[in-house]
Amino acid sequence: MNRLTIVMYHYVRSREHGRYPNLRVRDTAEFRAQLDYIQEHYIPVSADDVALALDGGHPLPERACLLTFDDGYLDHFITVFPELARRGLSGAFYPPVEAIQGQKILEVNKIQLLLAQYGYGDVHPLLEKLEALYGVCQCEDGSGELNESFTHLRQRLTVPSRFDSADIMFVKALLQYALPPFWRTRLLDRLFAEVMETDEKVIAAEMYMSLDMLRVMAKSGMHVGSHGASHVWLDKLSADEQALEIDQSLAMLAEVYGTRQFLWSMCYPFGGNNDDTRRLCSERGCAFGVTTVPNIAELNPEQQFKLSRLDTNDVLYHH
Q: pTM, whole model, 2 decimals?
């Protein structure tokens, strides 16, 4: 059975000198040290190698490893791309459309920045702000969509994860998917404006890559794949809504690659996918899909669109 270690990265930047020191990042020096470790203990492969192996071509070598980078951060162009190129490595990059072409701060990043303001520690002041703003939104809601009390929501959604406390997971759940889309966005935007001091456009400009940067990376041998349009849980959308997310992303990839033919893969935001997601990807010629399930990926037809990935924090413990 062909097995593949896929490593998932997000922010890669200097922890000490960044604008948001409490943001959870892979520090640049740590990233370089981890690449040293990976090159010593694994054989890095490209997305093309993975696609070929899945299509019945040459199997991957023992201890094969694919490096993946989510969300289209400027870090990936400034720090990751030069380091990979210097080492002769290829990475797979997954930028959402809204971040690149819309220069709009993704909701997931707004939540991260809010939590970073509180150091990912005592978030009770943030919870108090959330509860107050939720009450305001309830008063404004004439549809009855916000009929669940904040207290009940907190009881229902407060479950810890591998990396986060129960309170932090509640904040993430409430602002990622638990509320109706209109009210979730409205609540998050109001909270972000109240807590953050920097203009959103300024933050977006320094957070994400441009289309031209992605073109440079693609021409230099990096793989640019799909991460949807607006970075939402695809499995919480209808099939038609999922198709729109995927098609908008493919339209951007066509602009990245120009007239060249390109292989494309799918990275599900938050790892969220279902039968519809996988069917839509398959119908559009997707080579493979990667999740956030923390395990070693198995390369076989049954798992083609459900490949597991290890978080960068896990990789040293699965060798």
A: 0.91
Note the pLDDT tens digit of each residue in 210-226: 999 999 999 999 999 99
Which of 280, 277, 305, 311 lies closest to 293, judged by CA? 311
Which neighbouring-strand residues pair with 209?
Answer: none
What angle (nearest 5°) sits at the alpha carbon of residue 273, between those of residues 111 and 8?
Answer: 60
For residue 178, which amino acid is it?
Answer: A
pLDDT classification of 144: cutoffs 50, 70, 90: confident
Q: In this structure, what is the dihedral angle of CA atoms 78, 80, 85, 86, given to the nearest 10 degrees?
A: 90
Extract the tokens encoding 10.
């997000």
How far is it, in rounded angstroms, from Cα 256 to Cα 190? 34
State the pLDDT at residue 164: 86
Residue 267 in 3-state DSSP?
A: strand
- Partners of 92 in the beta sheet? 68, 223
